[in-house]
Specification:
The chain is 79% helix and 0% strand. It is an all-alpha fold. The protein has two domains: 72 residues, Rna Polymerase Sigma Factor, Chain: A (Orthogonal Bundle); 84 residues, Arc Repressor Mutant, subunit A (Orthogonal Bundle). The longest helix has 34 residues.
Amino acid sequence: MAFDELYGLFHKKIYLFCLNYGLSQMDAEEITQEVFVKLWLYRNTLDSEKSINSYLYKIGKNVIIDEFKKKIKTQATQEYQMSLIMPSNNVEESMDYLDLKNLVEETLMYLPERRREVFELSRIKGLSHKEIAEELGISTKTVENHLNLALHNFRAALQKTNVLCYALVSYFIF
């Protein structure tokens, strides 16, 4: 009952607080939910003489910072991976890059939907197996199986081609 009252009193304030940090409506809602979950999990450690309001905003700020750090890390990883396979001014490398890009896109397109989804969440968005499992409502073992099968599909596709930068592709995909 007390939790429902707190939620009713502070949900909109924390949600607007998140929006003021520049989060999308969906991210703001998710972070607002996470703030209340964290408050509930740590309720026994809170100092009853301090304002619940300050706890909520402090938790909110920390969760927002963690989310920004995660997004920065994901973006940096993607940029780094792309820099490894970006061609220099060499015409042959440019052609190999385009061939490789087409091969990756084509292979992704022919993967079964769930396998492709798991692969993209893992390799493109950088989510952990546990995060993927939670997001898709499947077990971590199923995530691992989908990734292994997807990687097998990529290996098979690469073996059929004459792409010269196989080592770079292997690093990027595997």
